[in-house]
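Teaching note: in complex prediction, the entire set of molecules is handled at once rather than each chain in isolation. The prompt given to students was simply: 'Predict the structure of this complex.' The entities are:
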Amino acid sequence: MAEELVAIVKRECPTCELVAPVLREIAAGRRLTVYTQDDPTFPEGIADLRHDETLERSHRLKVETVPTLFRLEEGREVARAEGWHRGEWESVSGIAGLGTQLPESRPGCGALNVEPGMPERLALRFGDLALKARTIEVSDWEDPIEAAYDRGWTDGLPVVPPTDLRIARMLAGTSRKPDEVIGLIPPNLAECTVEKVAINAVMAGCRPDYFPVVLTVIEAALMPAFAMHGLLCTLHFAGPVVLVNGPVAKRIGMNWAGNALGQGNRANATIGRALQLLIRNVGGGRPQEIDRAILGNPGKYTFCFAEDETDPDWTPLSVARGFAPGASTVTLFHGEGVSGFSDQKSRTPEELTRSLAMGLWRVTHPKSASDASGGAMLVLSPNHHDIYKAEGWSRADIEAALWEALKRPASEVARGVGGVPVGVDPALGDALVDKFGRENFLLVRAGGRGGLMSAIIGGWTGQRNAKEIQVVTKEITE
Amino acid sequence: MIRNEPYLMRDPTAETAPAMRERVPPPADLKAATIGLLCISKERSEEFLDRVEMRLAEHGLNVLRFAKPTHTKPAPVNVIQDIVERCDVVVEGLAD
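The expected output is the structure of the full assembly:
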């Protein structure tokens, strides 16, 4: 059986310098090929010394550390020793008494082929990663960013040009295969692969570590219950609002604190944008075409934030919706934009609840009730939450009290009342009406400190069809 | 910007775009055609299509009515199949 020994080294590594005499010892008695990653003359005194200048050999052998000693049979790896460890080197080489002058063991150094950004470069170069999307060549005289505008790929802001290397790096953020189909993107119900998501995530400005979140956002948007098709076509203002819960939010650096609903955080900004670009580019959902929005809202560029889970007394939305504490999730809500709610005067939970209910009645129309209103996401700031927390109120207590406070006699909001024809059926008399369908009312904790303000994100009027259109939550898998 | 190598990007779209789609020529005569009216099931779609049907019937034309279960989602395959099998032209009834 053709057996050979192969070592991968670089001169820059002190452990490789240390084992140079051992390599000469092995070469004296066995068939040994040494590949050097940097200096083509290192180590000296080896008959079969080769320069792995392209790093192909290192890449193919999946080297992570130098030095690494391999035993190959018929060209296939059967054993490897990483760094210097006498016992392991003796076992791999089959030679006893190696390097008796050396210490028992020494850790190695990082190999050049696994330096940041290099594995993706090598995967593209040596054909491990074959992208399937068609190639668009940009001429010498074109600016790639302008070329993306010319092809209609952008939301109006510049996009990052989706080059192979950037796409490969994005794909390294997931273990999922590039050609896996994750669903059909409305409105055109175009087949969408992980690769297409990666291309649009690159364009949106995502980092590879956001990619599992982006993939889950897309999958959640494609759940039939969310009715993405209807949402992207609607005349109404609404678009998808993405809320992230769980440890992933902290890991990728999302903002749930000051200006959580505003600009300035890369993860918040680009994850929401990736969804919108995908709808536009793969699905074909473009404004003034099938997106029939009368006015739209700035959140249709991107609308994504995380919940503040730093208060142990607060139950995160994902947990309230049945997911395990510690699970990372995305929740998608059909939201129309942010309406500010300032109340500097309420000091008790009861006062604040009544006050918030007044603010929430403004959603859709101040006289519309559950048969005509969209729902709402109430983003309770930490200072407003403190008023509840001081009296020991939990999420469930706040939700239940708000629910009661949101009930009003139909006679107050009947058609014609106040000289306004919008409203509920006058025949309801003094019967109590709900503002929203209960499943469309979400409570979230986020925001900075220093002001008694919260935010109301009005829902989509389509949510009145509760059987067909629902808020969705999905767990993020790597 | 002058570069030595071509700058290559990957297409972010469904790659269905460049093929120019020819419009189906309109039927020369509606007398022999079956006209489908598709209700998208949004408020007042039916009222709108009732009126369209009435007007078409005044001209002695053949009309069939269809409906999507909900306006929030694309038409299911069986509805599309039914229309394709039985109609020559279709009017889709929006609302609002």
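Point out the following to students. Residues 32-93 of chain B form one domain. The helical segments of chain B are 45-58, 77-86.
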